Amino acid sequence: MPLHPSNTEDMFHTAEDILQPTQARERFREHFLVPIETHDQKWVDLWEGGEFLPWDKGTASPALVDLLNQQKENPIFVAHNHKSGPKTALVPGCGRGYDVLLLAQHGYHAVGVDISAKAIDDAQAWIDNEIQRLKAVGGPLPTGQIDLISGDFFKDDWVAQVGIDANGGFDVIYDYAFLVALNPALRTNVAARMHQLLAPGQGVLIALEYPLFRPVETGGPPHGIRSSDYDGLFGGKFLKALHYMPERTHKVGEGSDMVSVWVKQIPPKYSKM
Ligand SMILES: C[S@@+](CC[C@H](N)C(=O)[O-])C[C@H]1O[C@@H](n2cnc3c(N)ncnc32)[C@H](O)[C@@H]1O
């Protein structure tokens, strides 16, 4: 079973592959020109088909690799490093789980959830292979627990299954190509759900802002978005701790991707009069 799409012409390698109305871009767009209520099944169909997964890069996000390497000194991680129990991280819409393994290598109890059971099977196979490879070459092994689970990000059943509290149980959420994979009408729901899942005061949402180069009116997925849209979605309940252009990112976002990091604030206490 090939773990990577065999037809590389169907991949989104560069921004041009998404900006030009290529066959792959149009195929992806037309696949989702159906009512939003049926989109979950449309993702499942793509994974079951297995030959058209144009987003799949085959590696963890370089921008996340670099940010996690600052874990000791970057203030956004301080609270996690002083936690008594295991620190927890979630990758919504994890696909083949590349970023899940990376977070576990940094000590997180890392959870990857995907609506497709086939995606989760692929992720398990890829992570198992990768751990064997790392053992052979003496590479960094995961020190945190890994849970790969199929489920709907918006529902609570999968959170309970991994033994984490859906109300504030996660220290980190990493979003790459999940928020923008969904129809833009769902964005406020995604933001509210991420807020619910994160721990108050220390929970951080790390967002790889992408595809900033794509005009919103050209449709998706991935649907075009601007940094100001992230501000609008997360700025109210989260504190924006970082916003920068990463030195390294997936090729498709080079020169445009930004990283924003959002801390879930502790709700203000009401004092008695
Ligand atoms: C564009 S892909 C990105 C995958 C992965 N983050 C990556 O970069 O390779 C979006 C993923 O979200 C998943 N997905 C879509 N709707 C979902 C939902 N409601 N809950 C969980 N996963 C979902 C899809 O199956 C798909 O794997």
Automatic annotation (TrEMBL):
Origin: domain of life: Eukaryota
Record keywords: Methyltransferase, Phosphoprotein, S-adenosyl-L-methionine, Transferase
GO BP field: methylation
Pfam families given in the database record: TPMT
UniProt keyword annotation of Thylakoid present: no
InterPro entries cross-referenced by the UniProt entry: SAM-dependent_MTases_sf, TPMT
Gene Ontology MF terms: S-adenosylmethionine-dependent methyltransferase activity
CDD domains on file: AdoMet_MTases
Record-linked PANTHER family: CYSTEINE SULFINATE DESULFINASE_CYSTEINE DESULFURASE AND RELATED ENZYMES, PTHR32183
Name of the protein in its database record: S-adenosyl-L-methionine-dependent methyltransferase
Native source organism of the sequence: Tuber aestivum
